[in-house]
Every structure is written in structure tokens, then in C-alpha cells.
Write a structure and sequence with these properties.
With 284 residues, the protein is mostly helical. Helices cover 66% and strands 0% of the residues. The protein contains 8 helices and no strands. Helix 2 packs across helix 4, helix 2 packs across helix 8 and helix 5 packs across helix 8. About 18% of the residues have low confidence.
Length: 284
């Protein structure tokens, strides 16, 4: 199954990375005619496979994914805290801090696009993206907390953890079925969401005041909730791709793609949770 998340779409390519004379790659536990077969010991990337290439030792594991995801998210958190402390958003420093945050956001976007179109993961690009994304998040969060809704950042972080835990539980318990139809629905909904967001920005830029109304009131809260639901959908797709990659014995370097995809999804969820809580607190 292909994912609509471009950062993890290369997982499926790893399934075809075996030599031409190798049997089809199949994960554990399936029967003929229902998808994967009873084991994947013939997979040259699988843990413990006995192949002359020695690639079995390079198969990705859950520990690899957790370590690299922790490193990437830790980089985001560290640079966010440092930018919060070192780039104050008081009246005397507001312009400089905003300028640095905007520059960091643009650099993070460029790095993410370069990585998204690369054939192989680059730890330097991914960690660079995480660092610059953290700078933007730190200044942005500090601004929201200082001028709009004091204390909302802690609530947003806890809300992001809550959403992530709920999606993980639902995925592990198979309460949601992550298949091709699910991926297509999430991709289509996300496309519509981003088009509406772009239209809102254009209306605002050309003097339509509050744009389409997605920045305030009940409509803004509803739009933010939809964004959170879409982020949860992408997170479920990320979990599915990680599970498939481990089952098919993808190369260990692909764990960096998992870290990249999970980080971008969690940043999305955090920003949408922050938006909803800020609007909700403002209305109250």
C-alpha cells in the first residue's frame, strides 16, 4: 500500500529491492491468496536472512525507528526551547525575532522538499529540517503564549501527545483499517484542506479582512478540528508504513524516513491543536 505521505512513500520501494532471482517479499503470518505468505525468511533484507550479500544485518527494526524519531523530535524540541529563550518577542525584539522565525520556516520548508524528492534519506537534511522547524515553532509558540493565550503551549503539547496516543491505540487495536481506500480518503481530504487554506491566505492578502473566516470563531475552531483529524489520519498511515517496513525488512537507513514523516505529522498536529485551543480560549 502506498501512502499519501511523500516522506514515507519509499517504504514500498524497499519491497522490490531484492535480487531478481529472489522470491517475492512477504511478511510473517499470512497465507497464500490473502496477501503475504507464512514467512519472509527469503527476503535478503529480513532480520536473520542467510544471504551472501550480508544485507540481513542492515534490516530496519523498531529500535532503529524509535531512536531516530527520538533524535529528530528531540532536535525540534531543543531548538524550540532555545529560540523561545534567546529570541524574545517583546516590543524591542519583535521584528528581529519574527524575521529569524520566518527565515527558519523557509529554510525548513526547502530542506523538507529536498529530502522529499531525494531517492535516499539524508540524516543531515532531516536533522537540519528539525532544527530550523524548532526555531520557527519556538518563536511562534512564544508569540501565541505572550499575546494571545497564556499557558496554551503546554496544553497544545499535551493535546498532541493525547492525539498521538489515541491514534496509536486505535491502530494497534485495529479499530481503524489503514488500507488503500483510507489512504486515498486522507490524501483527498488533505488536498481540499490545503486548497482552502491557500484560498484563505489569498483573500487575506488582497484585503478581504479575515479571509474566509478560518482564523476566528466557530468556523476557525471547526477548521482546526478538521486539521487535527487529518493529522491523525496521516499518523495512522505513518504507523502502517513503519510496520510494513519492519515486516518486509527494509534497509536500516529507511528509519530516517520514518523519523522525518512522523516528525512532520506531529508538527502538523501540534499547530492545529494550538490553533483550536487558542481560538477556544479566546472565545471564552
Amino acid at each position: 500500500m502506498r501512502t499519501s505521505n511523500p516522506n514515507l512513500s519509499r517504504w514500498s520501494a524497499a519491497r522490490g529491492a531484492a535480487p531478481a532471482d529472489a522470491p517475492a517479499l512477504k511478511p510473517v503470518g499470512a497465507t497464500v491468496g490473502t496477501g503475504p505468505a507464512d514467512d519472509y525468511r527469503s527476503n535478503p533484507f529480513a532480520p536473520g536472512a542467510d544471504t551472501p550479500t550480508g544485507r540481513a544485518d542492515n534490516a530496519v527494526t523498531m529500535d532503529d525507528v524509535l531512536v531516530r524519531t527520538g533524535t529528530t523530535l528531540g532536535t525540534v524540541a531543543l531548538t524550540a526551547v532555545l529560540s523561545w529563550l534567546l529570541l524574545p518577542v517583546d516590543e524591542a525584539n519583535l521584528g528581529r525575532s519574527y524575521g529569524l522565525a520566518l527565515g527558519a520556516a523557509l529554510v525548513a520548508f526547502v530542506l523538507s522538499m529536498i529530502q522529499a524528492f531525494k531517492r535516499t534519506p539524508s540524516p543531515a537534511l532531516i536533522l537540519g529540517y528539525a532544527a530550523f522547524e524548532g526555531v520557527f515553532l519556538g518563536v511562534f509558540s512564544s508569540t501565541v503564549s505572550t499575546y494571545l493565550s497564556p499557558g496554551v503551549v503546554v496544553q497544545a503539547v499535551l493535546g498532541t501527545f493525547a492525539v498521538s496516543a489515541a491514534v496509536l491505540l486505535a491502530y494497534r487495536m485495529r479499530w481503524i483499517r489503514v488500507d488503500r481506500r483510507f489512504a486515498g480518503f486522507v490524501a483527498s481530504a488533505a488536498t481540499g484542506f490545503l486548497l482552502l487554506l491557500a484560498a484563505d491566505l489569498l483573500f487575506s492578502a488582497f484585503g478581504a479582512g479575515n479571509g474566509l473566516g478560518f482564523h476566528s470563531g466557530a468556523l476557525g475552531i471547526l477548521f482546526g478540528v478538521i486539521g487535527i483529524v487529518l493529522g491523525a489520519g496521516f499518523l495512522a498511515l505513518d504507523f502502517k508504513q513503519v510496520e510494513d517496513a519492519i515486516a518486509y525488512g527494509a534497509p536500516r537507513e529507511e528509519a530516517w524516513l520514518a523519523a522525518f514523516g512522523l516528525t512532520t505529522t506531529l508538527v502538523w498536529i501540534y499547530l492545529e491543536v494550538l490553533r483550536v485551543l487558542t481560538l477556544f480560549n479566546g472565545d471564552n
